[in-house]
What does this fold into?
Amino acid sequence: MPRELIAPAQEQVAFREYESPPLQANEIRVKSQFGAAKHGSEMASYKGYAGPRGGYDSEYKVFQGNTSGMVRYPSGLGNICVGEVTEIGADITELEVGDRVFRHSSFREENVWGAAGVRKLPDGVPWQAATCLDPTDFALGAVRDGHVRIGDAVAVFGMGGIGLMALQLAKLAGAYPVIGVDPLELRRNVALECGADMVIDPTTDDAGLEIKKPPTSVVLMFVLNIAVIIRHYKRLSAA
It folds into this structure.
């Protein structure tokens, strides 16, 4: 039987066997090859604090103050899986056995997915690119909602997956300078590799003050990683 990675209870991790169901006409069977976790989401599920805003009401498009969004165990762990199609349902015409596909999924050795929710990985595109789609979606939302335009000065606080994607998207949108702020040297170095014009360590420097010093001396349009908004609020206000 195939196995999946789960949190059977709060702060516990285990593999669990499961039965792979027969295919429906609109489904495909996929053998998992690669996958990626999403640090914030996985830790929230593992530690049990996901969903404090309550469940999402799709009709009103707000989070309701109830317990429907909280973690329920056992809970699957993992964010995106990339794999090879091994079987297709009778109604499937856009995919073939052998295609590489991906979608949001917990870590499972074998998946049965509705074809409508699957994306095909184009030839020549590495699997790592597929696992970056989720943070890129959120980063694109931040850049779009922030109305970042050519010539805007942007600081991204938090150089995790979403922050690094936001930094690159801001550069593509024509922003200058684009500044990465993170306490970890490794992340700051990666930010420079991704095109940051400047990086700041907020544990040793006042980020707001450093941004205002020459040669930047700018008034910022901020793009924020939501995970660090509260921590850096005072520094943002200063800039």
